[in-house]
Write a structure and sequence with these properties.
CATH class of the largest domain: Alpha Beta
Helix content: 25-40%
Radius of gyration: 25 Å
């Protein structure tokens, strides 16, 4: 989408009403401006002198074809009607024409736009194509985890079954059996049976027709039928694919439902061959579809709105948790369910604690605040880090460190491309950081000459990795030992932490790898030191 149409906040702040993927109406009876961003088009409508009109329509395709450009040009500048704010229905009707052309033919009030069933059908087909003959795969939703008394944590769906089905609901099981004799048994979804009492107390769950519409799976059964149906299918099978979580950073001490069900299946079918689903999923989930990229872009857009709100809020004396609250307010009002991960809001020395999450200190004049935050949208994550001066201006030293980190960030982005080894990439980023630390006077040439290759000199001030996969999970799955591919999405997040100066600077954007380079999903979020200062002053 053209940068000039990416933001329409110059019209009015958004009101808390959302249609699909972002429909914001400003609360002003004189000048109405709102924005609709969908997969293919962005539409800007403005009301002047009581006559709403479409003033801008921009394609979100990187290279729209001639026919698309002509259709877009035909919509731009169209008047809606003479009745102004009293006839918003005319606006909706006209916008619906554009959305119908774009292949998005309906408007429906909802928190976020779900991805299409065809995507999940494709995901399942790609997984099944890598299964061994006469094998079954089973995937389970997460449990709702207890706290104490009758309390529970909010439900968070297991990412693998979500990627395969789109079902964001507990007590769900997916069974895939591509070689089943009966074609109706090749994909089966088991869901919690909804009923009137459940609808009254918690809200209705998916019925069978809704589950089919959402997933593209024809055979929907209630979860209570799982054991009986699965036992029948195992009579035809030779092997069973079980899922697990081999993520290198996972430290699970609590048994998950997948762990529990895997143990039961191994006990019930000890003479079968067992295979692992995770290696297949790591390869597939790491390559993002356009629909997934669109969800992630929306998460980045919401993160941008939160950051710009915070830039107007920060001043000496505010508490770190107040900044956290400003982000949360903006995220929620834009259709996000909140933070994609526990936010880090660290001022002064706290910025040097890599996983500082207390967010409890006062922001003092002269300090820099490190903010590692990201919104989720439709279960997909954004992951951004920005650093801002509490007083609105960086000192010369702070700016020098900030610009050094920014230089490494930009150099690192240019290194990420298809075919590159992630190991080699991190070595090269270390070399970029070494140069900057030498220029800052933080390390010496002698220290570099005598450094331990296993722990180079730059690690004293930059001790973490530069990039990780991101998607449904903040630290998403992917094969670290395989070359980078187009469709991967990575964070780029170098940092310098000078504990003796109470100064920590980290900068982070999310980038999509393409065949010929990358697309920065956060290129529209303020990053330059001058830009940060100007927005804080404004």
């Amino acid at each position: 989408m053209d940068q000039k149409y990416r933001d329409v906040e110059q019209f009015l702040p958004a009101a808390p009403v959302c249609i699909q993927n972002g429909f914001d109406i400003g609360k002003n009876t004189v000048d109405l401006g709102f924005k609709i961003e969908f997969h293919k088009v962005a539409i800007v409508i403005k009301c002047e002198a009581g006559h709403p009109a479409v003033v801008a329509v921009a394609s979100r395709d990187a290279r729209p074809d001639t026919a698309q450009k002509e259709q877009i040009a035909g919509f731009t500048g169209k008047g809606i009607g003479p009745n102004g704010l009293g006839s918003l229905v005319y606006v909706i009707r006209h916008v619906t024409k554009i959305l119908r052309w774009a292949g998005l033919w309906y408007l429906r009030f909802m928190r976020y736009q779900s991805l299409p069933a065809d995507l999940y059908k494709k995901n399942r087909a790609n997984f099944m194509a890598q299964m061994k003959p006469r094998s079954i795969a089973a995937f389970f939703s997460n449990d709702i985890y207890p706290t104490s008394a009758d309390g529970t944590l909010p439900f968070k769906q297991a990412s693998d079954i979500l990627w395969l089905t789109g079902v964001d609901q507990e007590d769900t099981v997916l069974v895939l059996f591509p070689d089943a004799h009966n074609a109706n048994d090749r994909e089966i979804l088991f869901t919690l049976e909804t009923n009137e009492e459940l609808a009254i107390w918690e809200g209705a769950k998916l019925d069978k027709a809704q589950a089919t519409a959402a997933t593209g799976i024809a055979n929907i059964q209630w979860t209570t039928a799982f054991d009986r149906t699965f036992h029948r299918l195992m009579a035809e099978a030779d092997a069973l694919y079980l899922n697990d979580n081999p993520h290198s950073r996972a430290r699970n001490i609590v048994e998950t439902r997948t762990d529990r069900e895997n143990a039961a299946l191994r006990a019930n079918y000890p003479n079968y061959e067992f295979e692992r689903s995770a290696p297949i999923l790591y390869g597939l989930r790491a390559i993002k579809s356009q629909e997934e990229v669109d969800q992630m872009q929306r998460a980045c857009d919401i993160t941008k709105a939160g950051f710009e709100r915070v830039l107007q809020f920060v001043k000496p004396g505010v508490m770190e948790y107040e900044i956290e609250a400003e982000f949360m307010h903006e995220f929620l009002r834009r259709g996000s369910r909140g933070f994609a991960y526990t936010p880090i809001i660290g001022s002064g020395f706290n910025a040097c604690v890599l996983h500082y999450i207390e967010n409890s200190a006062e922001c003092k004049a002269g300090d820099v605040i490190l903010m590692d935050v990201g919104a989720e949208y439709g279960n997909y994550a954004a992951d951004m880090t920005r650093c801002v001066p509490v007083s609105g201006k960086f000192t010369d030293r702070q700016r020098a460190v900030y610009n050094a980190v920014l230089s490494v960030m930009r150099g690192a982005m240019n290194l990420l491309k298809p075919g590159v080894s992630l190991h080699d990439y991190h070595v090269q980023v270390g070399e970029l950081m070494t140069k900057e630390l030498l220029d800052l006077g933080l390390i010496t040439a002698d220290e570099v000459a005598d450094q331990n290759p296993a722990w180079p000199a730059y690690k004293k001030y930059f001790m973490h990795g530069t990039s990780h996969f991101i998607g449904l999970d903040v630290h998403d799955v992917g094969h670290w030992h395989e070359p980078i591919q187009a469709g991967h999405v990575f964070t780029v997040e170098p940092g310098v932490y000078i504990r003796e100066e109470n100064l920590g600077i980290r900068l982070e954007n999310d980038i999509l790898i393409t065949e010929d380079g990358y697309v920065d999903l956060m290129t529209h979020i303020p990053l330059e030191a001058d830009e940060i200062e100007a927005m804080m002053a404004g």
